[in-house]
Amino acid sequence: MVVSRSLFDEVMVPNYAPAQIIPVKGEGSRLWDQAGKEYIDFAGGIAVNCLGHCHPALVGALKTQADKLWHLSNVLTNEPALLLAKALVDHTFAEKVYFANSGAEANEAALKLARRYAKDKYGEHKDQIIAFKQGFHGRTFFTVTVGGQPAYSDGFGPKPEGIEHAEFNNLDSLRALINANTCAVMVEPMQGEGGVMPATAEFIKGVRELCDANNALLIFDEVQTGVGRTGELYAYMAYGVTPDILTTAKALGGGFPIGAMLTTTEIAKHLVVGTHGSTYGGNPLACAVALAAVTTVNTPEVLNGVTHKAELFKRELQRINDKYQLFSEIRGMGLLIGAVLNADYAGKARDIMLAGAEHGVMTLVAGMNVVRFAPSLVIPDADIVAGMARLEQAIAQIAAPTAKQA
User: Fold this and answer.
1) Which fold has domain 5-54+300-405?
2) Structural element, H or E, at residue 83
3) Residues forming the annotated binding site for N(2)-acetyl-L-ornithine?
4) Tell me: domain 56-297, CATH 3.40.640.10, correct?
């Protein structure tokens, strides 16, 4: 049977609009499609493939575990899950870990835990959750409502209640909403889908102080920023602010689906037996791969390398911008980078992404005006330079008509 893009339209629910190309092989920071065309991957599966494609450590962990044990119910535990939980506890603030299959599920667990904790400790009235406009926390009905983008949550009937949205990086906005009924504040240290917007240190510190003053839990959504993406194992470490609950997914499995919620013993004890669960959470295959990913990433060589590679990325983007004048700002933390289009190129982020694919480089968007980059944390410098050369060709294609109009 010939597998083509048209088969997607025939058999798949139309909630996605994937590109026409179908990759069939990946190695390191390179991909190849059905026709054998090569691409340099600056997208990383949206910050998922933290070690690129088919990294030997991850492949080896998967193959080894595949010959041992694939799945157990949560009536039993398993060695890979316990070893991964121990690694996460040893290298973060956390004392307890809950495993899920995705970032949305990890966030769902975090929000349910926050509500349960507040109910048990303070009473039914303390149920308000505050998040931030332009935030993104997943696609379950609870998490998509907490996320601050109505376009994702509208159109599905009545939404979960008790949720408010403040302005990101605006403490006064949060101060106006938080009160004795607030059970938790959920925030991304850097908004990914919301435009690759880092939180300021002052903002994060202020959020922590407001949570403490109102007996509210602070939840860090590190689904996109976690596992080395910012140059720290988790982004909270650079802020000097410790959350009460942290969620992690995406890069945690290096491409294998897994999510986790991290918290303290005192908070975790409120999820007693039967209050929450997941059929596949803690799956031995996923946990074995994730342990290999965390172990490989959490080294000075890789984490320091993220900082160096991020500087090279930004230098190359600035070099392109000096020539074509299309970005108003290049921002981000580590290897989650956003190039913000200026007024002359407003709305053309997707055009640049599509032109990039034509020229053999894969990028992302974060809204209509931000070109997003989330490559492998170990992408070779040579691949960064080569990929930027291809991106420049794509940008020249987009910029040329504008230049002619001028």
Assistant:
1) Aspartate Aminotransferase, domain 1 (3.90.1150)
2) helix 79-91
3) 139, 278
4) yes
